[in-house]
Specification:
Blueprint (H helix, E strand, L loop, with lengths): L10 E5 L4 H12 L3 E6 L2 H11 L6 E5 L5 H15 L4 E4 L10 H26 L6 E5 L12 H21 L5 E7 L8 H8 L1 H9 L9 H12 L10 E4 L8
Parallel strand pairs: 1-2, 1-4, 2-3, 4-5, 5-6, 6-7
Length: 253
Amino acid sequence: MTCTFDFSGYRVAVAGGSRGIGRAIALGFLAAGAQVAVCARGQDGLDALATDAGTDAQRLHARACDLAHAGQIEAWIADTAQALGGIDVLVNNATGYGFHEDDASWLTDFNIDLMAAVRASRFALPHLQRSGRASILHLSSIAALRPRTMGPPYAAMKAALSHYTGTQALLLAEQRIRVNAIAPGSVEFPGGVWDRTRLEKPDVHARVLASIPFGRFGTPADIAAAALFLASPQAGWITGQTLAVDGGQVLAG
């Protein structure tokens, strides 16, 4: 991704940043000059991220963390603030992808899609309050914007996250901490949901592709570009918004 933003001196924490959208966001902030801390459950993904970062890896701090557990989130935020010297931007990207109508899916998405963002925000708040240019960015989904039959737990928790974005923005506005969310459409990348669908259910893949007015699936770089904008000074008067980045997909119904 060609970078047009300058985040030199920024300290950015990305929760869930070893693959797909989170990986692209982490690499985007690194390319823009920021110090970046990333957590993910798998160490292999974090090691691969460091390799992909190249010379920018000297400004990357990576740590394994299970975002379903509050104690591990608290430890990661504390470690991040110490390693980077503070936190200016918090990106909550993790998802549990609960696509089944059972308790396990609901609880997984509750803990990862919603509560991980709530907890990371809570633990990061003292550091964001000292920033002077703080913002929080949540990764929601266009699934939050309309009723759907596929993945009720995922859609419901993303909807809750979008609602929380507005509430949190209102609560933190007096402290000049901005809070926004991105609602990606169908994003395809190696090993991701739509890549697997292309291989396993080509008819579904083709049907979804045909529903996107721009005629293509999104890429992680599309979402990362929006994330960098929303965290930048150019978006300094934008807060409480959920921005659909979907090639018009949600417009087509």
